[in-house]
Amino acid sequence: MNRTEPPLAAGEAESLIGFLEYHRATFAWKCSGLDDAGLRATVGASSMTLGGMQKHLAYYEDHWFSRCMQGNKRHPQWAGLNPEEVWAIRETPEALHGIWQAAVDRSRAQLTETLANGGLDQPAARSFPNGETPSVRWVVLHMIEEYARHNGHADLIRESVYGEVGE
Questions:
Q1: I want to staple 89 with a disulfide (CB 3.0 to 4.6 A). Which of 43, 51, 146, 158 is the partner?
Q2: Euclidean distance between CA atoms 161 and 110, whole angstroms
């Protein structure tokens, strides 16, 4: 897998984006080359699947970068769904990858635009229900955490399906 390590010495925005991109690439690696059965495999008592994770992460890419950070309406693909419903797999492996990749591409463009217009310290366009507003920095750090957590899950599932151990 071709993953670029985060920069060892860079500014804050470049470092954060480097870690986010590293975790996105790790997740793409864990989901690569799997057929339908591989994307539906579970571990133990959990119902979590790699295919479900692809949709979950695509949903949250759109939620945090588009909806929260930029204040856009929910992406039409997620209209009427709650976050738990996105785990259901009704798509082919190719479609699942496409859903995730399209969301990542939109998020990259939105983050680039947002950073060009004010940097990491600026508040997100949408506040939480309690009235607090996260910064763009918080949104980026939250997505790094989201990918890091699910990459651990993906390691376990991938190992159970193909015996491949993560690094």
A1: 51
A2: 35
Confidence bin at 165 (pLDDT 50/70/90): low
What's the total number of domains in the chain? Answer: 1
CATH code at position 75? 1.20.120.450
Buried b (16+ CB within 10 A) or exposed e, 111-129: beebbeeeebeeebebeee
Tell whether the model's pLDDT for residue 1 goes beyond 70.
no
How far is Cα 16 from Cα 81, in angstroms, rounded to an integer? Answer: 30
Could you say which DSSP state residue 29 is in? H
Say if residue 71 is exposed, middle or buried (CB neighbours under 10 Å; 0-12, 13-18, 19+): exposed
Q: Domain range for residue 153?
A: 12-162
Question: Does residue 141 belong to any structural domain of this protein?
Answer: yes
Band (pLDDT 50/70/90 cuts) for residue 166 is: low
Instruction: Kindly give, in sequence order, each residue whose CB lies less than 8 Å from that of residue 87, ignoring residues fewer than 6 positions away.
Output: 47, 48, 49, 52, 55, 56
DSSP state of 77: G
Q: Which residues contact 110 (CB under 8 A, 6 or more apart)?
A: 65, 66, 69, 70
Residue 83 has pLDDT above 90, yes or no: no
